[in-house]
Amino acid sequence: MEQSLISLERMRTFVRIAERGNLAAVSRETGAGQSTVTRHLRELEEALGVSLLTRTTRRTALTDEGTRYYAQCVQILSLVEQASQEMRDTRQATAGTVRISCTGALGVLHVSRLIYAFQDENRGIRVEFGLTDERIDLVRDGVDIAIRLGPLSDCAMKLRSLGESQRMLVASPEWLRRNGPVRSPEDLRQLEGVRMSRVHGSDQLVLRSAKGRNHVVPFHGRLIVDHGLAARDAFLAGRGYGPAHRWLVEDCLRDGRLEHILPDYTLSPVPLSMLIAPERTNLTRVRLCVDFLAEGLRQVPGISR
User: In terms of C-beta density within 10 A (0-12 exposed, 13-18 middle, 19 or more buried), how is residue 175 classed?
Assistant: First the structure.
């Protein structure tokens, strides 16, 4: 087979198959027929003289040779895209698509507005905005930027710290009228809270006094939710008290729909970070978006450096 068949098109097809793990998924993503995707892979393997993937009826996996070749292809394709972009004028350099993933509540309440403002300033940039509280694989899912709350272990990604998200205990005025005033952590022991599922240690609260003493209080309740906006709605409906990120409830505190419980005690903050796919960091449109979002998120109530 001629070496000319080792084309950028076939490299791109192979890279997407390696990342998605499924030929049919790549076919749907690219709009090419599955026979075309299969042919590109076969011709590439024949030109190289090695098997790049092992295939079953459900999944594909990289061979050792495929793993090495994938890493080289990612570098080559990244360099090609960067070289092409540098040759365009300023308008064209800021054109294209940026794919962003964000935790749901923060995305709906704050990040979406930042994206609107970013697009108003950069009319040539298309944004694909995904909301999920699940940890995603940026490379596999084709995401450029991910905004995440909590500790991270994505060592291969470029990390940009945005600060810490401050938390507080809140409840509705109606709930406080029914349950009486809360003057100390001990008053919470018999009260019903709204809990978040899939949060480690959510069965207790650790409150730190102004003097630096930690108070550990059991946290229980009949309502358990898996989304920040659902927790916010439950607080407003008087279903219980609970911890909330300040950015989640700032407007409700301001207009009196929620009240801050035990303001002299603090909850531990949560890290807020931005992850960027390494091969996308040198793209102008991605850099512009990263800088814009980082600056905007630092202005969100309750995000501190």
Answer: buried
What value does the mean pLDDT take over residues 51-64?
Answer: 82
**Pairing outcome for strands 223-225 and 194-196:** parallel
- The strand pairing partners of 266, in sequence order, are 208
- The dihedrals phi and psi of 26, each to the nearest 5 degrees, come to -65, -40
| The CA-based dihedral angle spanning residues 146, 135, 171, 169, taken in that order and rounded to the nearest 10 degrees | -80
pLDDT tens for 190-224 read 999 999 987 777 889 999 999 999 999 999 999 99
Count the Cβ atoms, other than its own, within 10 Å of residue 86. 10
Angle between helix axes 246-254 and 228-236 (nearest 10 degrees) is 30
- Which residues have C-beta within 8 Å of that of residue 68, sequence separation ≥ 6? none
Helix (H, G, I), strand (E, B) or coil at 49: coil
Confidence of residue 58 (pLDDT cuts 50, 70, 90): low
pTM of the predicted structure, to 2 decimals? 0.71
Q: Which amino acid is at 275?
A: L
Q: What is the pLDDT of residues 87-119, one digit of tens each?
A: 654 445 678 899 999 999 999 999 999 999 999
First to last CA, the chain: 57
3-state secondary structure of 12: helix
Determine how many CB atoms are found less than 10 A away from the CB of residue 46: 12
Q: What does DSSP say about strands 303-304 and 158-165: parallel, antiparallel, or unpaired?
A: antiparallel
Is residue 222 helix, strand or coil?
coil
- Closest Cα partner for 303 from 236, 224, 246, 241? 246
| 131 close to 256: Cβ distance less than 8 angstroms | no
Q: Where are the alpha helices (DSSP H) in 125-222?
A: 138-141, 173-179
Q: Which two tokens stand for residue 148?
A: 């995440």
All residues at 6 or more sequence positions from 94 whose CB lies less than 8 Å from its CB, including other chains: 122, 124, 125, 284, 285, 288
Tell me how far apart the 2 most distant CA atoms of the chain are, in Å. Answer: 81
CB count within 10 Å of CB 80 equals 13
